[in-house]
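Recall that a protein's primary structure is simply its ordered list of amino acids. Everything else, from secondary elements to tertiary packing, is in principle encoded there. The following example makes that idea concrete.
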Amino acid sequence: MDIQDLDRRAVRTSVALVRQVTPDRLDLPTPCAEWDLRALLAHLTVQHIGFARAVAGERTELVDWRPEPLADDFVAAYERATDQVIESFAAPAGRAYLPEIRGGVTVPGAMAMGFHFIDYVVHSWDVAAAIGVPVEFDDEVLAAALTVAGQVPADAASRGPGTAFDPVLPEPAGAATLDRVLAMLGRSPAWPH
């Protein structure tokens, strides 16, 4: 599994979706219950920057990962952040410190990329669901996302309030691969129903 290439493809999908967001849609709800689309886009932008710095070997702190108010030209700001993370991931450091995970952990660079990858598969779906458009990933990206999602621990330190994912949901019968990934990470593929 070439996590750099898979992540780049997931990120490019997110860019195509963010380009469809217009200012009048920023107050729309998202599958991330605590965030409207404005807050989700601010989160996505700062996460790119945080991961880029971490995978480049820079030590960041929680304050570096806090979203800032969305820029007026939020699409261009998002695209700049995606360029930064893709460039950083092309030549990763051996290890990356991630202050948001379990109070701060140092992980191999490839593992940090895996965290970023699964985040952008799921958050691409979040954006698409919020604006009412489909999201499409190729079979290789979806297969990798299913593998990575299956590796996310199901313990309280990894799931629920204050963590990246909610508890695992029952898998819908005959679910498509993306729906299986979403359920594994606590998202209802039928959102908002």
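The first helix runs from residue 3 to 18. The first strand starts at residue 95 and ends at 98.
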